[in-house]
Amino acid sequence: MRSTHAAGRVRTDLADRAPTVPLRPLPSTPLHILVVDHEVTARADVAKALTRQGHTVLEADSGRGAIDLCGSCDLMILNLDLPDIDGLRLCRIIGTDRGIPVIASAERRCEMDCVLALQAGADDYIDRNCGSRELVARIDALMRRMAAAGLVKPAEIIDKGPLRIDIGARRVTVRGRYVELTRKQFDLLALLALNHGEVVARGEIMHKVWDDSWSRRTVDTHVSSLRAKLGASTRIVSVRGVGFRLVTSDEVRAVADHVPELSESRTGTC
């Protein structure tokens, strides 16, 4: 009897110390995820599961559609069986050339397909019919690996007057109002905000946002779009011949009399 009682006490103590495991996975950091699949139902099922986790989902039914939308995504889930472009070739274009994380999928898990996808630039490979929990867990694991490798910026909140930028969630609000931005628009705004009040040279913008693949028109177009989306409460000021700086409307009013370029129209360019 003593032995049984002692054993029971030990088991109870271990149970008390055991961590409580939630029945549902904790929400992951919200991402812009591009789901590429030619089948409407399969694509919709994945999009629904990811949306429930708080992610913003973009959808494409072809390789060309994926190329058009990939600039606005943080990660791509790619079905290798596409009607217009070979899936492995698309892995090389998106994953290797453009540096966007790719999770490849196929109708069934085949070792050779997995090896070829990983060699082509995919970061992970899954069975197309895997459950939503496994998919979300793989996304979280991939982003953790990228963060550990220094390929993802750590979570950071930037508050600049009415402007709030959540770096980790890639979320921007102005006076509490959500502002939807493309991937490059967000990267440009984050760069300017991290150097708030200071001029960021065009060369630095080209290098850090476009990886030196750029044109003057590309930068001006993105700056113009950001100005329109942010409104008058936040202003991207052109500093002629140098670059751009980010200031709030209060700062503009406070120093406009002393800094001539702050008095320029916010639609002006360098």
From TrEMBL:
Residues 155-248 bind DNA. It comes from the Bacteria. It holds the Pfam family Response_reg. Gene3D superfamilies: 3.40.50.2300, 6.10.250.690, Winged helix-like DNA-binding domain superfamily/Winged helix DNA-binding domain (1.10.10.10). It comes from Nocardia aurea. Residues 32-143 form the Response regulatory domain. Residues 155-248 form the OmpR/PhoB-type domain. InterPro entries: CheY-like_superfamily, OmpR/PhoB-type_DNA-bd, Sig_transdc_resp-reg_C-effctor, Sig_transdc_resp-reg_receiver, WalR-like, WH-like_DNA-bd_sf. This is Response regulator transcription factor. Keywords: DNA-binding, Phosphoprotein, Transcription, Transcription regulation, Two-component regulatory system.
